[in-house]
Amino acid sequence: MTRFAPDPVPGQAPPADSVHPREATKDAPTSVARFNETIRAFVSGWGSVWVEGEITSWNVRGGNVYGRLKDLTADASVGFRIWSSTVQRLPDDLKIGDRVIASVKSDYFVKTGDFTVLVAAMRHTGLGDQLERLERLRAALRAEGLFSPERKKPLPFLPHVIGLITGERSDAEKDVHRNAELRWPHVEFRTVHAAVQGDRCVPETIAALKTLDEDPDVDVIIIARGGGDPQHLLGFSDERLLRAVAAASTPVVSAIGHENDHPLLDDVADLRASTPTDAAKRVVPDVSEQRALVRQLRSRLGSRLAMRVSHDIAQLEQLRSRPVLRTPESTVERRSHEVELLAARGRDTLERRLARASRETAELRASLRALSPGATLARGYAIAHLSGGLIIRDAAQAPDGTDVVVTVGRGSFGARSAGEVSEATSGDASEPA
């Protein structure tokens, strides 16, 4: 809607909002609104421009972002706005401290006289290509297994000597020493100073790592640096340093920057600490906590030992209360009576068996005597046999004049056969001769 200024009254100054700022005088000043509209019309003609700076403020309200960009070298800044529709097209990791380039269009609020810029696009600068290269390197190292938990070495419970790589006279060095000594007063450090940014960072850090890794007294190595611009932390994502850390035989702790910083060294190291202070707390145990743990373990051990002794005493009393242990002589006496009974029974059994065997032996002896040739001879019979020992059973075996031996009940004597024996007596004799 076009506004028309009223015709001026003769002798009076024209209204302020009808005077163009270029024509304004002290007698005919322009209005603030006309002045602001003129400025807005002027800056609106600039169009879109690309600017570079550092984000120093980032506030989200209603989906829109309100912030400020600070010049990287001079003391100058400008406010900016990003509508919610534009925010959705921007990188998700934009934050305070980021170095960015942005496509902006100037805007001037007539009502408040505030100058700001509208952001149409924004991205990281300086680190953009480097971040892309780092992501490719991260993927390659992960594929090689350098980030695998299986290859990470465990830290010693209480290191005797801690190797520290950090900048000379840096706050990181002071933080590590102070917090480690507070936790364990007798901890010992071997510190090798190295550049923590710039071109000398990587070679000096690798050399320091080699020196400490070859030291047999060093149990763990901490690489520490305070926070800073991400550009200054790029050395701790260098592939040469990462491979040197992976090849080290001593456990390595990465303590680079702050919690939000995440160089590739954090993924390759055996332990990632969020800050140098955190590294000291993770590497060295707290002496007060360990003493409390020892007291707790001693108390638990004493309780367990007392319970075990009480249990064993109760079992011993239970065993002692049994009759066999309370009056052991009664068991011996009972067993002795049993032994005496068994011995008497054994003697009776043995005597009966011996008596029966004696009777059987006497009967057998009598039978043998009755059947033996000696008993027959004792009844008056005799045995005649030739000198060769052949028993004469037939008279024809001893013709007239044959020398024979005659055995009787008591001894033997020689004889000679003479004449013929009558037929009546040549047979078997039933009576002794």
UniProtKB/TrEMBL annotation:
Reactions performed catalytically: Exonucleolytic cleavage in either 5'- to 3'- or 3'- to 5'-direction to yield nucleoside 5'-phosphates
Keywords assigned: Cytoplasm, Exonuclease, Hydrolase, Nuclease
One GO-annotated biological process of the protein: DNA catabolic process
InterPro entries with a match to the protein in the record: Exonuc_VII_L (IPR003753), Exonuc_VII_lsu_C (IPR020579), OB-fold_nuc-bd_dom (IPR025824)
Record-annotated OB-fold nucleic acid binding domain positions: 31-122
Disordered as annotated region, ranges: 1-29
Residue intervals of the Exonuclease VII large subunit C-terminal domain: 146-364
Enzyme's top EC category: hydrolase
Pfam families, sorted: Exonuc_VII_L, tRNA_anti_2
Keyword Nuclease: yes
Localization annotation: Cytoplasm
GO CC entries: cytoplasm; exodeoxyribonuclease VII complex
Quaternary structure note: Heterooligomer composed of large and small subunits.
HAMAP family recorded: Exonuc_7_L
Function: Bidirectionally degrades single-stranded DNA into large acid-insoluble oligonucleotides, which are then degraded further into small acid-soluble oligonucleotides.
Protein name per UniProt: Exodeoxyribonuclease 7 large subunit
Organism for this UniProt entry: Microbacterium caowuchunii
Name of the gene encoding the protein in the UniProt record: xseA
